[in-house]
């Protein structure tokens, strides 16, 4: 069915052109999405917190408004602090519970599968082919006969020291060397 290397549907320049178009489109979609998120955030803030109308207010009214805003800020900070404490407490409880669960489970060892091997397989594993080749290699080597070196008899060294002491001993060594 397949007679050779498959030709691509598009040429390399066409693929590069399509890739660059896709990247441009993705970049423009990211920019549009970020702008949309920004407008959504502004709309949500304007709904929850309408803009303050400070024009035409007396000093006393401004002070009352500031006190009211400070009170609202304090309430929000208290609720935020309470929520943070609840979250921290819950996270700590989750962590201790997961630790207890892992302690109860213990370390689970995986079940090992039994493997049946015949005696031929066992022997095949023991006698590796490389070991057999080494044995064959050593069998084909020629044996070399070693020449026996002349060994001098080992005598008591004390007698040898007394005989070789002085100038006569050196003369004997010199004569023996020639």
Largest sheet: none
The poorly predicted ranges are none
Report the mean per-residue pLDDT as an integer: 80
Query: Strand portion, in percent?
Result: under 5%
Describe the structure.
There is one protein chain. The protein is mainly alpha-helical. It is 69% helix and 0% strand. The longest helix has 47 residues, at 59-105. It is elongated and about 140 Å long.
In short:
The protein has helices at residues 12-48, 59-105, 119-126, 129-139, 157-164, 166-177.
Features:
mainly alpha; single chain; 6 helices; 178 residues
Set down the secondary structure blueprint:
Blueprint (H helix, E strand, L loop, with lengths): L11 H37 L10 H47 L13 H8 L2 H11 L17 H8 L1 H12 L1
């Amino acid at each position: 069915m397949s007679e050779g290397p498959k030709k691509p549907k598009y040429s390399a320049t066409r693929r590069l052109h399509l890739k660059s178009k896709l990247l441009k489109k993705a970049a423009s979609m990211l920019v549009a999405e970020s702008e949309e998120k920004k407008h959504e955030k502004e709309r949500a803030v304007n709904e929850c917190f309408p803009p303050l109308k400070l024009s035409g207010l007396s000093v006393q009214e401004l002070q009352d408004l500031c006190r009211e805003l400070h009170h609202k800020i304090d309430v929000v900070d208290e609720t935020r602090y309470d929520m943070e404490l609840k979250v921290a407490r819950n996270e700590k409880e989750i962590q201790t519970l997961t630790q207890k669960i892992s302690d109860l489970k213990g370390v689970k060892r995986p079940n090992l599968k039994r493997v049946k091997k015949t005696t031929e397989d066992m022997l095949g594993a023991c006698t590796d082919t490389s070991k057999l080749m080494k044995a064959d290699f050593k069998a084909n080597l020629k044996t070399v006969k070693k020449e026996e070196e002349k060994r001098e008899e080992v005598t008591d060294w004390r007698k040898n020291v007394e005989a070789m002491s002085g100038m006569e001993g050196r003369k004997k060594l010199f004569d023996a060397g020639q």
